[in-house]
Amino acid sequence: MDGSVARWSAVYLEHLQARKLAANSLRAYRRDLESVAGELAELTGTGSDRLPVAELTSAVLRSAFARFAGARSASTVTRAWSTWNGFFGFLVVEGAVEGNPMQVVPKPRSSPATPKPLQGEDTPERLLRMVAAGARQTRNPWPERDLAVLATLLCTGVRSAELLDLTVSSLAGRPGDRRLHVRGKGGRNRSIPIEDSLDRVVRDYLASRRTRFGERLPGGEPLFVDHRGEPLRRGGLQYLVRQSLRAAGVSDRVQRGAMVHALRHTFATRLAEDGANAAEIAKLLGHSSMNSSQNYIDVTAREQRLSVRANRTLQVLGELSDDR
Q1: CB 3.0–4.6 Å: which of 144, 176, 228, 258 could bond 208 by disulfide?
Q2: Domain Tyr recombinase, which positions (predicted)?
């Protein structure tokens, strides 16, 4: 078989596709493989369709990643490193190379991400109420759809890519025992309980969708669509959330670097505040490691301690202690 980087990349992507990864995940893998392969081609003067994977040494890979990292964030470089590490692991299993050179290719050190939920105790509720009342003004208002999208994000904690990958059949179960079946990162599936209030919001949205487009809704149809009845895309979702936050007057309560993900963080933070343990949070959010889930608990504990320290009675006690 052709032993080039291009050929083995195609085989690896077929392998990933067979694992039923989400379409967005496959695109990210392909983008990472092609981007670094482009750097390798420039370094070696050989196109990826002619560059043998067996000739990719740790030295040339270090140089390629150094070039790749030049204008990219640490998280992007880390993701690409993970892609190529998995790629070489696959090549070793397939016998295409003898070892994995990525083990000596440095990657950025990443500190645990700090949760960035919506700020303000009443912010999620205000957002939902305002959107339900039609506060988001558009040429073709669809408050039922907007409310269903925001409520699903806030009440299930799904990632934006997971939400866009949902189909009508992702909602399953009898009334009172409804669940949302989610295909998550790395092909890991999970099932999230759906409370009756969220189920009603989604059913109202689907009823409004049938009224708008006069169509049946087979199970394989995308769950969320845009105003033309086309599958909702990433850009459309971001715009919907941004405009809804602005219409509700809470856009200033979104922390820097967060937007759609702030709704997921809000879901997880409230789980921690209500006493959920790391294992429960990890299961609901689809974390591969409980370390990420523990982060929400640790942050919540710090916030609670800061709130206690702000108690004016404690401040008086401190003054009395100082006087003694």
Answers
A1: 144
A2: 113-309
With tokens 């299961």, the residue in question is: 283
E-only strand ranges, 195-268: none
Contact 160, 260 (CB under 8 A): yes
The gap from C-alpha 127 to its chain's centroid, in whole angstroms, comes to 21
* Cα 260 to Cα 144: distance, rounded to the nearest angstrom: 18
Residues 6+ apart with CB under 8 A from 221: 167, 168
264 and 142, same structural domain? yes
174 and 287 within one domain: yes
| pLDDT tens, residue by residue, 212-222 | 998 778 878 99
Q: Which pTM value belongs to this model?
A: 0.66
CA–CA separation, 14 vs 18, rounded Å?
6
Total domain count, the chain: 2
Count CB atoms within 10 A of the CB of residue 215.
10
Q: What SS3 state is found at 154?
A: helix
Other beta carbons within 10 angstroms of residue 286's beta carbon come to: 20
pLDDT of residue 154: 94
C-alpha torsion sign, points 110, 114, 116, 119: negative
Structural domain containing residue 168: 123-309
CATH number of the structural domain spanning residue 74: 1.10.150.130
